[in-house]
Amino acid sequence: MVVVMKTRGNEMMKCYYAHKAEDGRLQTVESHLEGTSVLAERFAADFGASQFGALVGMAHDIGKCCDDFQNRLNGGPIVDHSSAGAIACAGIQNRPICAICVAGHHSGLPDFGNIVTDIAGMPTLVGRIKAKKRDFYDFAKEFSLPETTEEPLFENEPFARSLWGRMLFSTLVDADYLDTEAFMKGKSVRDWSHNSLTELLDILRAYMRKYENPSSPLDVLRTKVRKDCNDSANLDRGLFSLTVPTGGGKTLSSMAFALNHAVKNGMSRIIYVIPYTSIIEQNAAVFASVFGSKNVLEHHSEVDFKEEYDSEDNWNPKLATENWDAPIIVTTAVQFFESFYSNRPSKTRKLHNVANSVVVFDEAQMIPTKHLLPCIALIGTLVKHFGVSAVLCTATQPFIQDIMNEYTQGMCIHEISTDIGAMFTALKRVEYNYIGKTNVDDLADKISCLNQVLCIVNTRKTARELFERLPDEGSFHLSTLMYPEHRKKVLNTIRKRLSAGLSCRVISTSLIEAGVDIDFPTVFREINGLDSIVQAAGRCNREGKRPAAESIVTVFELGKRNPSMVDICIGAARETIEKFEDIGSAEAIDYYFKAYRSLIGTGIDESESVKNLSFGYNGCTLPYKTVSENFHMIDQLTKTVYIPTADNGELLSRIKNGNADTTTFRLAGKYGVNVYERDYINLLESGDLDETDYGSAILINELRYDENCGLGLGADYGRAMFV
Hints:
With 723 residues, the protein is an alpha/beta fold. The chain is built from 28 helices and 25 strands. The chain has a seven-stranded parallel sheet, sandwiched between helices. Strands 13-18-17-14-16-15 form a six-stranded parallel sheet.
């Protein structure tokens, strides 16, 4: 126990304080360290590190026991209060990973550094300790910290060791925030209660009873999928795949597996990781309708948290997103993976709550190829060492067993579906027709002759070129050059016209391929990866009301230049098309992904995150900060242009005047278009934008935004000028 008030002979020593509340109340360092230590010890127990949790919790703020920090509580200058605890962990306890956690609990995990070559003052943990050791070492020895008799983990698995350190950091950050929050507010503000997973399983079973007597062939098949999920749920924790074609009911079936499996294995929560916010919103709505909204936490950039919450149970989802304190989490792949490779306290705070959970990766094939290794290495390590069961859920299952083997010591991926081939045959709704090369004019002629048709192309430029060649009546365009609210309005119009049997020709980029519940009798798809083609086919005869022979998915080529990674996808797709008559079959999909993996070779870790965490970076071990700066799931070379509308004047005014907060940006995101840097600069130099202090801009030339196609990037959208 740390003693912050003691006697030396007859001398009474000072009582040091950690926090001062607005009403003047003071929390002693002793009280804060003990409270944080208890919480961190409990959190770390989920991955067998309770002693280390207790140590970092007790060590993190011992540097506050000095006159300089007491002056800081009264408005004095900022004081380094974390180096003392880091030195205590590194020098006295010989726990370097504990030291790096303590050192970064406010500023973020630093790179560990190199003990031999780093000098005092370098921005690594080693440089920091060398600079501060003289000042803090004797001071740190005054404290009696908990002993850690457990041996250091994963000495021969450096990537797992780096993840263990990040998880330990998460326990400290969350415990520190929670103890501080409770003191500052005078009470716990997170005293909400959820249903247990056992109770949620009972709720789901009651809900699913209405499907017990299937009357149609499709319902029979969905019932079989659920039975497979319930049967496999009895297995021990591990790696699972759930391969179900579109229409097979995988949303509720995967939840049935997750809840049954979690209850059977004594696990803590269910986490759904989904690539698109549109799918998240749909799935979260389904789950909330079944389990109640207080049991389902939706966490992504577009969720609109209300300022007032149900006073009966104090459920505050906005607060819960900070540490994922809910039984069911629905989040994005970007949020999940970037949090695990971040060094920031706010991003990593929730990570410890992933341990001992079932994590379902919906549309698993959507993991970006350039980040395939760090994503799969993370999944495998979570399963092998942190009590996680992972489910890769998709109609087009990627080939990843070889990568997974390295991080799970050969653990096999257990397929939940028992007869995939028969299921694909039973759910076949389309026929594929590959027509080879064509051009935009001929393609436009074909589409113009059809009453209802969807055409998906690879680029926004092609989408616009094709749309401009179609008849005005009944033709629609969708791309990310339209702000999200605009796209939603267009999609609603499209659905109404399809339902009414009116003409409806839609040209879209790939944004429509997943998470958009829409049904066309005919689909055209520019050649791309086979997974994209199959996803596009999911928008054709979606309800299965027409014969497959009358529901044609036409695959074509325009001969346009593509990025190298797209060319690799196309190469593997061509190879599959040549070999298989039905490219939507389970066998064709399996063949495609193996061909694709053979073509991409080693290009699966663009940021080199796994290499750097495993072997160091430029002689620096555990380069947490460097990895955080380099790992981005989404291309960061874009900037946001906000489009003024009749509804968003107040939001954009706050951004323009520099008064925006996170809520403002979240709401304004519905009106934002992300453009590449070169296009942003062109718009700026043309005088079309009003740049803000946040690295974004507001469109001021209304001629640049077209009601059909969105933001124009070409030179033909400049201002009209009077001479």
